[in-house]
Design goal:
4 helices; four-stranded mixed beta sheet; 131 residues; 24% strand; alpha+beta
Length: 131
C-alpha cells in the first residue's frame, strides 16, 4: 500500500490566520511522519507528505488522484487530502480533515499493537475534537 498526505503549506505554516486549521493540519503531518517512520510494521510500502501551494494542480506528487468540487460555478481543487493506493491499484481518497485524522490514527493504533515502543502522537485539542 502507498499513501500520500497532501496539505496546504500555508495552513501548516499558520499563514492563513486560522489557528484551528493550522493545529489540525500540523497534527495530520505529525501522524503521517510517525506512520512513515514505522510503516513496515503495518505493511505500508511508502508514505509521501506533500505541501501544496496556491496554483499547484492538486499537489499530486506520488499518487495520481485529485479531488475536486464545484463551488461558485468554478472547479475547486482540494488542497488537503489523503490518497491511498492498495496492491491492486485501487485508490481511496479522503478529502475531509476528520476522515484523514481517523485513518491516520487508526494506522497508528495498528502500529502500537505491533511494537512495544511508544508510537503515539499527542494531538492538539482541535484535532482530538474531530475524533
Amino acid at each position: 500500500m502507498r499513501m500520500e498526505l497532501r496539505v496546504c503549506k500555508h495552513c501548516h505554516n499558520g499563514e492563513h490566520g486560522n489557528d484551528h486549521k493550522t493545529a489540525v493540519t500540523r497534527d495530520m503531518v505529525k501522524c503521517a511522519e510517525r506512520i512513515r517512520e514505522y510503516k513496515d510494521l503495518i505493511g505500508i510500502d511508502s508514505l509521501y507528505i506533500t505541501y501544496v501551494e496556491e496554483g499547484d494542480t492538486g499537489g499530486a506528487e506520488a499518487l495520481p488522484a485529485i479531488v475536486a468540487s464545484i463551488g461558485d460555478n468554478q472547479i475547486q481543487l482540494s488542497d488537503t487530502q489523503l490518497v491511498m493506493e492498495d496492491a491492486d491499484g485501487n485508490m481511496l481518497v479522503y478529502p475531509e480533515p476528520e476522515d484523514i485524522l481517523k485513518v491516520l490514527t487508526r494506522n497508528i493504533d495498528q502500529m502500537a499493537e505491533q511494537t512495544r515502543q511508544d508510537v503515539t502522537v499527542d494531538l492538539s485539542p482541535e484535532a482530538a475534537e474531530l475524533l
